[in-house]
Amino acid sequence: MLSQLLLLLPLILAGDDFAERKKAAGRDVGKLWELALWCEAQEREDDAVATYERILKLDAEHEGAHEKLRHHRYDGKWFETYRALSAYRRAEEERMAEKGLVRYGDGWVDEKELPFVRMKWTKDDRGDWISPAALAKRAEEARLAAEGWQQQDLVWVHPDDFQRWRDGLWKCGEEWLDTAAADAYHAEIGSWWEVPGEHFVARSTCGRESVRWITWWADQTYQDLVRATGVHPEEKPSFVALKSLDQYNDFAAGNAQAQRPAAESAGWSSVHYAFLADSWVTFAGNAADYDGGGVAYWATGDEALAPFGQHSVRHAAAQSFLEAIDPSWNAISHMVTQPPGTPMDTEAFHSEKALPTWFRYGVASYVERYFRDANVGEDGDPLWARKWATDNLRNQGGLSDLEEIFAFRLDTNDPDGSSRLISEAGLLIAFVLDGECRAVQEQHQALKMALKKGGDTEAAARGLEQAILKNQKKLRMFGNL
């Protein structure tokens, strides 16, 4: 019995000591803090908690006491439980959502501006968002222009070298080369020609004479693209035209040896001779720029493939145009802030678009193979391409169910079916633009207006689909299918 009392004696004495210390501390927050720490040292957890709670009654903002009690600080307030904090944050998000704001880090940003904040872009003097690389490029170009430099294509040339330019040479890196040597210099991916046309910029590994035709063919699509969408891009869209199928496949799939990731996420390059490079990103230091746009190939040396060159270029130019006017910045910002080589989330990318996928691919298909050729000779047929396309559809069994076309599910395991689907979407756009069906035209106009205003296009897009469905007899007569 005596031995047990001896064991309890320190606790009894400590209890007396605690009572004396507590009385001595009174309402002095500093002394109470020391008492709480003493309680912890004595493993008197309940007394420590009670003391921290007493401190908060005297000083509600005492940071140390809150932290000891494992409270959570947020928005200038302390929350005793994570559950209480979560409830507060949910209510806060609802309030902010009504203002169009979303959470980013510890702050709030406009939902429409979140992708650019995420990518660490800034606003320029006009209030437009711009990437760090583009801002630096703009400043450098302004400096060069002020010093009298001029651009040969997109390459800046010092005044001292103007005579070489006049002599017909091309600036390639630090050298000046004749056309044949320049073609060889620009024949590889990444070192390609960059040639501005009237409405587009072509990046091409083809020879210079071919690039001249490539920019011309791309420019021929512009008016139809504006007619289909009702808007103009703010800048000239860039597209890629490669000299061979091998380069085309290499660019699409990526090249580990060249440290070049895949340029696309879905593999749709395998179902057509042009595709949208939705995962194409270039890095300048730690900053990433999205280069997504259309990619084509023109194999001038292949008798079987060469005739399809202009169609491939037209489709690629259209994809770049459509990406310029209808980007998926939220999906893009998530991709470019990940490690290099991270592919695009294809579903998120397309679901963010204002225009349905069938409409986008239909527009690209229209300027590729359903266009009116205003450049045929006096005896030529301006609808030669359209007749070729509809003949192909007829030989493939005619037009598919329209709902399947609207769903637009390209399948890399069915390249023939997917290629046909792209063509069918083009026929639908041909009917929209040239079918002279008033109900369809009215719904198309509604979609263009919604896109131009930057509002919700879903209802207008669905309205166009319903109008086409209701007039599919006219559609089939239009396509002679």
Could you characterize what this model shows?
The structure is a single chain. Among the domains are: 13-70, no CATH class; 186-328, Glutaredoxin, CATH 3.40.30; 356-481. Helix content is 53%, strand content 12%. The protein contains 22 helices and 17 strands. The chain has helices spanning 2-25, 29-41, 45-58, 63-68, 82-98, 114-118, 132-146, 162-166, 179-185, 208-220, 222-229, 245-253, 309-325, 329-336, 346-351, 357-370, 384-395, 402-407, 415-434, 438-453, 458-470, 472-478; strands at residues 72-74, 77-79, 101-104, 107-110, 122-123, 129-130, 150-152, 155-157, 170-172, 175-177, 193-196, 201-204, 238-242, 274-276, 281-284, 287-290, 294-297. A five-stranded mixed β-sheet has the order 11-12-13-17-14. Helix 13 packs antiparallel against helix 16 and helix 16 (357-370) crosses helix 19 (415-434). The radius of gyration is 33 Å and the shape is elongated. It starts with a helix and ends with a helix.
- Bin the helical content: 40-55%
Mean pLDDT: 92
Structural class: alpha+beta
Instruction: Give the C-alpha Rg.
Output: 33 Å
- Strand order within the widest beta sheet: 11-12-13-17-14
Instruction: Give the low-confidence spans.
Output: 4-9
Question: Under CATH, the topology of the domain at 186-328 is which?
Answer: Glutaredoxin
CATH class division of the domain at 186-328: Alpha Beta
Which strand-content bin applies to the residues?
A: 5-15%
Question: Judging by the overall fold, what is the CATH architecture of the domain at 186-328?
Answer: 3-Layer(aba) Sandwich
Number of helices in the DSSP assignment: 22
Number of strands: 17
